[in-house]
Design a protein that fits this description.
Blueprint (H helix, E strand, L loop, with lengths): L4 E4 L3 E6 L10 H7 L3 E6 L15 H11 L4 E6 L1 H12 L4 E7 L17 H10 L4 H13 L5 H12 L7 H13 L13 E6 L8 H9 L3 E6 L6 H4 L1 H14 L2
Parallel strand pairs: 2-3, 2-4, 4-5, 5-6, 6-7
Antiparallel strand pairs: 1-3
Length: about 260
């Protein structure tokens, strides 16, 4: 098993982890900005983009495989599913993570009797049922969900689709396994163990992961800062890039 990692720039190490069914190319603009002063590691998660799959494909093995190839004391930025992997790396491999930045992520994606800051499980099961039949159409709908509601949603969706379809498509099995991670992961009880400084960024109009998920995490994490980006949906680094980068730079300045 080998992971595809693009490394650009020089300086302190930053790792970028993408979301479900995506690849590192979605971070292109962010990576270019960060690389002016830092060494940026843009990872294709296992089985996605140019990376080989890992077996079994569960959260622990995904986190272990990424932790193995990133430097110690990295700032790890994770978006959506990538945020859950970043959390798992910080919990299981704390020496690899000096700072944690979670973008529209959550400790638990699906609703439960004690967790309303999630979506109905049927949303993800529908994708799992359809992805093998028409991958491109299913992913186009998924990309639409990730940018819906943002103030610049059309531009964000166009940029996301352009980057998404430039690399090999993951297999249906990889996508279903990753969806299963979203359906079953619950990291809520483990969050108080995290001691790293954390920045939580969330779009106010995110319809896939409710902003209350980040609000809840901010209250649980010992050293967390929360930024809700007004008008943004599930991909604020695409729809609101200037505010997103300003938020990152402020956090870096406070936690050198």
């Amino acid at each position: 098993m080998s992971l595809h990692v693009e490394i650009i720039g020089q300086g302190a190490d930053i790792v970028l982890l993408h979301g479900w069914g995506m690849h590192g190319g979605v971070w292109a603009a962010v990576a270019a900005e960060l690389a002016h002063e830092r060494r940026v590691h843009v990872v294709d998660l296992p089985g996605m983009g140019y990376s080989d799959p890992v077996a079994p494909c569960d959260l622990a093995h995904l986190a272990d495989s990424v932790a193995e190839i990133i430097p110690k004391n990295s700032t790890v930025i994770g978006w959506s599913l990538g945020g859950q992997i970043a959390l798992k790396i910080a919990l299981d491999h704390p020496q690899k993570t000096s700072r944690l930045i979670l973008v529209d992520s959550t400790p638990r994606f699906v609703q439960a009797h004690d967790w309303q800051a999630g979506v109905a499980p049927e949303v993800f099961r529908e994708f799992a049922a359809q992805v093998g039949d028409d991958y491109r159409e299913t992913m186009t709908r998924f990309l639409g969900l990730q940018t819906f509601g943002g103030a610049s949603s059309r531009i964000a969706l166009r940029d996301l689709k352009e980057r998404f379809f430039t690399r090999p498509a993951p297999s249906p099995a990889v996508l279903r396994d990753a969806l299963d991670i979203l359906l079953t992961t619950d990291l809520r009880e483990q969050l108080p163990r995290l001691q790293q400084p954390a920045l939580l960024i969330h779009g106010s109009r995110d319809t896939l992961v409710p902003p209350d998920a980040s609000r809840w995490m901010a209250a649980q994490l010992p050293r967390a800062r929360l930024k809700i980006i007004d008008g943004a949906s599930h991909a604020p680094f695409l729809s609101h890039p200037a505010v997103f980068m300003q938020t990152l730079n402020e956090f870096f300045g406070e936690n050198n």
